[in-house]
Amino acid sequence: MSDTRRRVKVYTLNEDRQWDDRGTGHVSSTFVERLKGISLLVRAESDGSLLLESKISPNTAYQKQQDTLIVWSEADNYDLALSFQEKAGCDEIWEKICQVQGKDPALDITQDPIDESEEERFEEIPETSHLVELPPCELSRLEEIADLVTSVLSSPIRREKLALALMSEGYIKKLLGLFRVCEDLDNREGLHHLYEIVRGVLFLNKAALFEVMFSDDCIMDVVGCLEYDPALVQPKRHREFLTKTAKFKEVIPITDSELRQKIHQTYRVQYIQDIILPTPSVFEENFLSTLTSFIFFNKVEIVSMLQEDEKFLTEVFAQLTDEATEDSKRRELVNFVKEFCAFSQTLQPQNRDAFFKTLANLGILPALEIVMGMDDLQVRAAATDIFSYLVEFSPSMVREFVMQEPQQTDDDVLLINVVIKQMICDSDPELGGAVQLMGLLRTLIDPENMLASTNKTEKTEFLSFFYKYCMHVLTAPLLANTAHEKNSKDLQEGSAKINPVCPDNFQTAQLLALILELLTFCVEHHTYHIKTYIMNKDLLRRVLVLMNSKHTFLALCALRFMRRIIGLKDEYYNRYIIKGNLFEPVINALLDNGTRYNLLNSAIIELFEFIKVEDIKSLIAHIVDNFYKALESIEYVQTFKGLKGRYEQEKDRQSQRLNRYRRDARSLDEDEELWFNDDDDDDDGEAVEKSRMEDDFSDSYGKYMEAKKGAANGANGANNNGKAAVIPPASPALTPNNSSASSVKTVALPATPVVKTAMVGLVDYPDDEDEEEEEEEEEEEQSPRKRPRLSS
């Protein structure tokens, strides 16, 4: 099968100026003998039939659009388009076309707009020069003008020539004059033609025409023409909305008339693009690219002009933070700053940096701290949007401001705490604002975007600040909703289970889920700080209370928090989990879930599967020792049997290791006894025997010391009977007369201090087992009572 790069759809333009799909196939460029030239061939992918056979003519204007479209005209009223599945295929065919025509593939149009050879193809347009000769601007010729404008839209060359003609003759203002006449006469047919003409002129996509059409004396007439869409029974009332409903609010009077005019123009042009003009089809998107650029550069100019007016912005921020400012006025000021920041997104990165630095110098963050704490919901929402612009631009700038705030006794005034409280107190049932704020907090505490300075790291400073002054505010709702769990341990067996969470309050459950999501992020990225916080607050136990929630999404959030902790494979966390018996609520949730096969069931099993696969020995031993009886009936997965298998393997390894230690100790005793027996047989006192005895002694001593060294390295002590620790009785050879042997043997006998008491106890003896069993019984009596479900 042909590769997908060459897969295309073939389109032709019908009489109604709509594109018809002619089929899908694979395109190739091949020399066709019949056409005497390189041609584009498209064969249908269904049956291999020929969908298109088009010779690449040296004089045909081909246009590439949107990286995956090639459009051209075969004849005056026969336009074609190839829509490629992949950009690479489009580029490949485009290079072939440009190669045939001798053009640069970097161009999007292969022919010069005023190429004389192209003018011969404009048979329906009489012309005496390079420009199109437009019909006289009269009421009786409106239909002819409309047909001319709509007919050129498919050809880039024709569009260029028509645009030049419209600009050279001041034709636009004459057309708008006819519009006023038609409206006075209520000439609906003429008004419908003018709609087609003005819409077509906009699609010519020429900035010079836009400058005329969107000038103060023309733009409302342009809007008026666009009200009379022939498809509508009654015309729209766009001009009425722009002049009466839409009000221009000046929060601070703008004295610069050019700036005022630019703001009005931008609003109206944006209205034309977003409201009046229909959504462009896939082939029309590029027709309005210049209109988009026109709006873009207007916004850049507005931001630059406002930014340069220091007196204006200073007054804005002074009134914003003034306690005497009325609420309605403050709302307008905040909305202005929000729109100002939105406009700034059009700036180039360098200019945007300067823009936000200007706002920072004017005190945008202290102002936000004040307005975000206000009761007005609209003001808070707008302030949140401004804050999001600042965080997205520079998290470091926000962190630096926060850490420089004076540390007052009341932490509530800190900006981050204001943000957290707004998140917690979001009145929206769906918590839309809280979700947005949680994302901003996550960005601020993300170490990935923290910079390292010369002497200290921003990460260390800010995280220490956050955990000291802000973390308790973030976790307050979580701790408050799990506060009564400790009392549940005192419930008698068989009594009803008290659920301290507010499970019926969906909004509270959503909020706790958001907080847990942020805490889970902290576990993953803040290793030291969050570990200390979890240990000090016993946070995991409180979080696992939420496994009881009737909202499954909240139980899953709690489980995800624990899963992330276990995923770190940190023994500090593992010991904390074992000591607190924190698997109990998870296993209770699994058992309560019963035979239902749902996400909660799968997530819990995945947690245990991870422990098994990663072979986390301490947790495996804890789970099997304490919960295996409750879990062994679960056989639809092999996870728990696998955990038991891992546990048994580890016990076998430990047992083998202990047996090996015992065997090594016995071989050491046998070597010692052999040596002492050899020593007892030596009582002749003859010189020959004496020298042979010394040689034998050297060998025995060497073996003895090697064995003893091996026993020490293997961490083995002697038996409790203390054979190695007792000096054997003196043999007859050890007499004063036998001075040579005596001197050697006395060196060999400092056996008492060799045995070290620290090594005793590493070997398992029956007496020790009895003692350990007694200790375990005492610990079991002291441990908290298990829930009835686990023992049943």
From TrEMBL:
Residue ranges of coiled coil: 644-671
Gene Ontology molecular function terms on file: protein phosphatase activator activity
Biased composition annotated in UniProt, kind: Polar residues: 734-743
Pfam families assigned to the protein according to its UniProt record, in alphabetical order: EVH1_PP4R3, PP4R3
Record-level GO cellular component terms: nucleoplasm; protein phosphatase 4 complex
SUPFAM superfamilies: ARM repeat (SSF48371), PH domain-like (SSF50729)
Biased composition (Acidic residues): 673-686, 765-781
Residue stretches making up the Serine/threonine-protein phosphatase 4 regulatory subunit 3-like central domain: 144-649
Disordered, as annotated region: 673-695, 713-743, 760-792
Ranges of biased composition (kind: Low complexity): 713-725
Keywords: Coiled coil
Family: Belongs to the SMEK family.
Function of the molecule: Regulatory subunit of serine/threonine-protein phosphatase 4.
Name recorded for this polypeptide: Serine/threonine-protein phosphatase 4 regulatory subunit 3
Organism annotation: Cyclopterus lumpus (Lumpsucker)
